[in-house]
Amino acid sequence: MRIASFNINGIKARLPRLKEWLEETRPTVACLQEIKTQDEGFPADEFEEMGYKAIWHGQKSFNGVAILSDGTAPEEVRRGLGVDGPKEGEGEQSRYIEADVNGVRIVNLYLPNGNPQPGPKFDYKLEWMAALRERLQELLASEQPTVVVGDFNVIPRDNDVWSVKAMAGDALMQPESREAYTRILNDGWTDALGLLNPRGGVWTYWDYQAGAWQRDHGFRIDHLLLSPQTADRLVSAGVDREYRGREKASDHTPVWVEIRD
């Protein structure tokens, strides 16, 4: 069972690239972030034609998450963590969706960026991470096989970034962000890419600016976390790096984990 995550950075703008990736790699489950469309604008029919059933949680112009499943429909369990956005009266942003697929609980998330920091956006990031940890603790306690994927907007280690100095002031690398991520791992989750690449140097994101892709100035912020029940079934995990180099690509590239059925 291959479970993949892809911050698509606008599903309408990247639909040809997304379908190309699905056709070429055929993950069992594909979790998307930053779909950037309201619910009624989600192109579910396009995926149906390919054999994928979908659930999604959209938002106009920003955020948004979706889960695609090959052949069988994801059984939605939850959407949202109950954390309002940083602006007064904004309400909750579309950043979290949870479903069951083939006996595995799938959690798909798009964690707040937190920039600029310090400030309300960074405070929101930390509040959201605390709510996420609380929910993930509940899932651990249930002992259900669970895979948590998505754009965490956290660079966990110094060897997960091309230049520590260049990113030192960014919310993605602040001690508070890293500590919140580490607390989640210490509850019992396995970072599949981190486990299999202890020396680092594996990037999942390259900015559009300053020739970051061409110069390989990237970092790792898209993560795949496994509960103990799925960590025992881990076969492999990787990054579909080549898709970042294609025409009109997302600034992220897909990541995936494979577990035994």
UniProtKB/TrEMBL annotation:
Its cofactor is Mg(2+). One of its GO terms (molecular function) is double-stranded DNA 3'-5' DNA exonuclease activity. Residues 4-252 form the Endonuclease/exonuclease/phosphatase domain. Its EC number is 3.1.11.2. The keyword Nucleotide-binding does not apply. Keywords: Hydrolase, Magnesium, Metal-binding. Belongs to the DNA repair enzymes AP/ExoA family. This is Exodeoxyribonuclease III. It comes from Aurantiacibacter sediminis. The lineage of its organism: Bacteria, Pseudomonadati, Pseudomonadota, Alphaproteobacteria, Sphingomonadales.
